Amino acid sequence: MTASRRQFLRIALAAATLPLATRSWADKVRTLAWAELIPEGDTGQLLKQLRGIGVVQHGQLTTGFDQPEAKSVTNAFDGMTVRLPGFVVPLDFGASGVSEFILAPFVGACIHVPPPPANQLVLVTAQTPYDMRDLFDPVEVTGVFHSNATSTGLAEVGYSLQASKVKRYRG
């Protein structure tokens, strides 16, 4: 076999295995649905009710909702790299963007309507601040997920996520 033919075969083999190497990283990221964060036995009925209210102004709810207590959280995704879409509720932000926020399953949660149960909220710490344009724009957060209770000024939160990537959600 000639040297040029060997070189061609090496390049062809490298090109053929490149998609496999790229795919292996993507296969390690688990896309989560919000329903997976509600442990069995915790029905999340109030969450469905709150979603039906829509976005309202502060003080305009006709019922005095407090944050419903979550029965528990799930540990099934601890330490996993996950992808989760949702809405940003900013906690720490500056000129370069939002570096810490609550990820919520619906727009207006914790701000215009009572917060959902703690097992439906994720505290996100972003390595790179996210340049948020609008509270109504959904995002997709990818990073390492953990089950751990945290109290913020807005809500009790059941999960945390160390975000390696935050981007606008495109569906």
UniProtKB/TrEMBL annotation:
<protein>
    <recommendedName>
        <fullName>DUF3299 domain-containing protein</fullName>
    </recommendedName>
</protein>
<dbReference type="InterPro" id="IPR006311">
    <property type="entry name" value="TAT_signal"/>
</dbReference>
<dbReference type="Pfam" id="PF11736">
    <property type="entry name" value="DUF3299"/>
</dbReference>
<dbReference type="InterPro" id="IPR021727">
    <property type="entry name" value="DUF3299"/>
</dbReference>
